[in-house]
Write a structure and sequence with these properties.
Two copies of one chain form a homodimer. By secondary structure, chain A is an alpha/beta fold. Chain A has helices at about 10-25, 35-40, 45-55, 65-80, 95-100, 135-145, 155-165, 180-185, 195-205, and strands at about 30, 65, 85-90, 110-115, 125, 130-135, 150, 170-175, 190. A seven-stranded mixed β-sheet of chain A has the order 5-6-4-3-7-8-9.
Chain lengths: ~210, ~210
């Protein structure tokens, strides 16, 4: 499947396709037309067909898509079948929730270490993996070579830690801090999580209900 | 300011503008051109100007925008200056992290009650507000009339609870469960949080590094 020149909006839609197809699968669907899929996702049918054309042929005209195969292929394009070793930095409330709530393995990531500076948390276990002292980060990364860091620390500490992590070979960040990593390390892949944006959108919707 | 027919993509960008302008403000910027703002946000200058034109005149040609005023005006469009009473349902790891990590007040929401079914959590305090028994939800809502619910429970329980909440007058959901509320209540405003989508995007980026 050709992957050249996939535009950013198409890439952004891939996880949604993957998610919707998973839901269809769990509801017992085996085939779906681009029309039906687009209706459920709030897109147009031609949009869906265009998106899938970026990656080659997923279905037959007039026959619809095989839900299971389509989901697997999109999963493969997303790289979910390849495992990346990751460390999670900061296991306060947010870090702990992320660690326990997110099923990293389903998305191609394996958390091999948790790191924290707060003494009282060090040594505790999360999903059978110990929380380590942040001072041991260098040694751990040199030995275990994680490629990804999940950053769950406040903005203040993020500059120093991201510098250290990039130096230790981290190639991708899942960034919950409000520090802009990309600004200093354009070569590193960063996904920022801005949960507040959706809260603001909800506020907008509520305030424009009767207009 | 005219708000008619604002398209969904424009609405989606408003929180980003708000956030970026806040960061500029904290860095000491007082004025910014559409060119500079667009560069920082990865948009084109004409895109930025078009977006702002939807809401009327924010700046003067060639003179740039006043950062502080622009942020306030976008905040007002987002309705962040109006407070909505909200309840948060489910204070497991995720709910607790959301409750403690998100500064709801900044975004126009006031959490007036936390609800949980797990006996051991009931009576504990979060930010000076007690965690209540989910069985008291009806009575609480009738008395206090919240408009919004933050749903932090697993998919399984979400159908029954969302039905109950809509019946109790809830008009908007910030939905962390993987249950599709909109399907049954199209009249209710729902913002779904799909954190996994950004994790999949990171996987895609990492797997297409060298291509």
């Amino acid at each position: 499947m050709g992957k050249a020149n996939i535009s950013n909006p198409v890439i952004r839609r891939l996880p949604r396709y993957y998610r919707f197809l998973g839901e269809l699968k769990s509801k017992g669907f085996t085939r779906i037309s681009s029309g039906e899929l687009s209706r459920r996702m709030g897109l147009t049918a031609s949009q869906v067909r265009q998106d899938f054309n970026c990656f080659g042929e997923f279905g037959q005209q007039g026959y619809g898509y095989n839900v299971d195969i389509l989901q697997s292929e999109i999963g493969a394009i997303l790289g979910l079948n390849k495992m990346h070793k990751a460390v999670l930095i900061g296991v306060g409330n947010l870090g702990r929730a992320v660690a326990q709530h997110i099923n990293f393995n389903l998305f191609g990531f394996q958390i091999i270490g948790y790191f924290e500076q707060k003494e009282s948390l060090i040594g505790q276990m999360i999903k059978n993996t110990p929380i380590r002292n942040i001072r041991d980060l260098d040694e751990f990364c040199r030995e275990n070579k994680p490629e990804v860091a999940v950053l769950c620390i406040p903005k203040e500490g993020a500059k120093v830690i991201s510098e250290q992590l990039v130096r230790l070979g981290i190639k991708g960040f899942w960034n919950f801090s409000h520090y802009d990593i990309s600004l200093n390390y354009p070569e590193v892949q960063v996904e920022n999580v801005h949960i507040n944006d959706s809260l603001m959108t909800l506020s907008y919707k509520l305030n424009n209900l009767d207009k």
